[in-house]
Fold this sequence. Notes:
- By secondary structure, this protein is an alpha/beta fold.
- The chain is about 45% helix and about 15% strand.
- The protein is built from 14 helices and twelve strands.
- The strands form two sheets. The protein has a six-stranded parallel sheet with strand order 2-1-3-4-5-6, with helices on both faces. The protein has a six-stranded parallel sheet with strand order 9-8-7-10-11-12, with helices on both faces.
- Helix 10 links the parallel strand 10 and strand 11.
- The longest helix has 17 residues.
Amino acid sequence: xxxxxxxxxxxxxxxxxxxxxxxxxxxxxxxxxxxxxxxxxxxxxxxxxxxxxxxxxxxxxxxxxxxxxxxxxxxxxxxxxxxxxxxxxxxxxxxxxxxxxxxxxxxxxxxxxxxxxxxxxxxxxxxxxxxxxxxxxxxxxxxxxxxxxxxxxxxxxxxxxxxxxxxxxxxxxxxxxxxxxxxxxxxxxxxxxxxxxxxxxxxxxxxxxxxxxxxxxxxxxxxxxxxxxxxxxxxxxxxxxxxxxxxxxxxxxxxxxxxxxxxxxxxxxxxxxxxxxxxxxxxxxxxxxxxxxxxxxxxxxxxxxxxxxxxxxxxxxxxxxxxxxxxxxxxxxxxxxxxxxxxxxxxxxxxxxxxxxxxxxxxxxxxxxxxxxxxxxxxxxxxxxxxxx
Length: 389
């Protein structure tokens, strides 16, 4: 199978937004005969000038955000550039993974089968994510975003979502035929050669008399950093020595000094060996990933934690219930659950530490069998093969 991979960003390097598509497409490329990358795209000067004018206009007169990367005019220009590229290569299928803002294939006219693999619909993300509040975004951007997504889905032969939640929102909001919708989870954005015996050693080295919680996230409030601190505080007050390590964002604790049980390490880049080794050490030593998130689709930190035998404590919102199965690789709680419910779950596992170790090994098994790119790109390849053979 020969694939044309279309992204509006650079999917060939594991940096910034492209980290997920890098690991996804690298794994898929290993399954196929060849992969041609199409994108990122150029923006004509006349379009760029128009987009800047619109941005200033909306900022000044409506105080609402306009997103040029969701403008129909831009997506139609992308379609023109994609068509030109496709005319010069020999491929069997057009594959468009998760992209920033709108899908670049939204207005592409092609006789080739088109496949999307993504984690959410705009309709579901609107007013779910704080950055996509309908009171802050101009009506033109909302209108274009819906239209672009509707066009993209109508052109696809196959739409793959990373969770049942995302798939259901597509069916409910865009009335696409269920026969072309599938669910395949995302994997971990790391290189992992760990085996079960490695994980057994890692788990055995974790202390049974001190609980180490790890919070990974770039958005303190949305990811529930304040809840993680309260959980840690309550566990300490209940007699379980507990430490919270925060990576990726600033803890927004302004009413009091940073508690002694919180370690703040800032942003750690996994693109350097030093950063990667540091993250590996943190993950190896931690008992739980704690992610009491208020809005999320399918956070990649979950399979990454599972790859180290770390169960995940998180919320049952968005696509997370597809990733975390209770008592298999962690536990999900209601977004509004009392802090004591988190603490009771952790305390009980430490009171019967054998059960914790079983859960840790089970979490690694979830990574090995269900939450890694190699396994899941094999499933996607099989689905795409059915379209062309």
